[in-house]
Specification:
Elements (H helix, E strand, L loop, with lengths): L1 H9 L12 H10 L4 H6 L6 H15 L10 H8 L5 H10 L7 H14 L5 H15 L3 H17 L2 H13 L15
Helix pairs in contact: 1-2, 2-4, 4-6, 6-8, 7-8, 8-9, 8-10, 9-10
Amino acid sequence: MAAMMNDVLTKLKGGDRRSIGRSDEAVQNIEKTPALFADLFAGLFDADPVVRMRAADAIEKSTRNSPELLRQWKRALLERVSVLQEKEVRWHIAQLIPRLSLTPDEQAAAVEILIRYLDDESSIVKTFSMQALADLALRDDRLRSQVGPLIERLTQTGTPAMRSRGRKLLKQLGRPSIPKGRKTSVR
């Protein structure tokens, strides 16, 4: 088992951030041996930013069909992982948050994280954060009244990717659509 653990993390090493390296192989290892997920999660705290990014990618892919893998890591994800600075990690965190089963206090913390991510320099982080907020709002009517106006504003003022995603999210949230067009200065 120790050899497999090292093998999972070894697959995440080398190269640069423009590539996912062998993270898909790490995902296959997790599918065969879910107990290795703990080792993959530890990769989020590796000294090498490439390993952290690829660990986040592999975690996101591993939990698409098996969100229960995140169950024991919920607190660490919300408290320790969410503060990591790499945009490549943050956009995956935004994708992971809606997969968690959250208490009301945890949901409030998750919403704070995602709103903070809306100030990130990366359009991808912002766009995935919008999606995550909408996903959470679809499960909670009270949150929907908070998130709907936020998505409307971001759809009017955001990057092209944010505006495109925002129009789809507004439809899902049952909000009035905002026509395609130029960025407005509404704040």
